[in-house]
Fold this sequence. Notes:
Layout lengths: L17 H18 L2 H19 L3 H20 L4 H15 L7 H14 L5 H17 L3 H8 L5 H15 L2
Helix pairs in contact: 1-3, 2-3, 2-4, 4-8, 6-8
Amino acid sequence: MTVIEPDKTVEPSSSAAPAENAKANDAAKLFASEVNSSALDGAVARLETLADAVRLGGDADRAAALTEASVILAADADTHGMPSDDLREIMEHAHAASATMSPMTPEQLADGQAKGMKELTDVPAADLDLARGLIRKLSEKMPTLPYQLEATGLGNRPDFIRAVIREAKRRAGK
Length: 174
């Protein structure tokens, strides 16, 4: 079961020129240092390192999306009192999934979704709905999130989905 809605096609929201993305990245890095407490820095640093590598590889739009993700997720986690270990776990899943330099093929995504469904048969539909709701809420702040989940296959990974479910339950007081 994919965390994002399977019938929606999501494209990256940024069509800005690389120079504009570089300016946004500089601002995001400054903002990130103000938002992140020292406990969250390690989790954010992993995506920042990946963003730098992707930027050096010439994909400024994807690098901007990764930088945006690290800043927004850290700020959201701080706002909602998310334990730093939980944020670190989610960021590590995101880093591992984003380590590929090209998006997954439709066949790879379908295979990942089928495998993920098999591993999540013990998860109640209500829990998956909570996770989807959290992803939708985060997507309001970070429009590229559904694209990143789709492009990397992260939205189909059971370990990531279980971590998102834990956080969604925590926020819902369950």
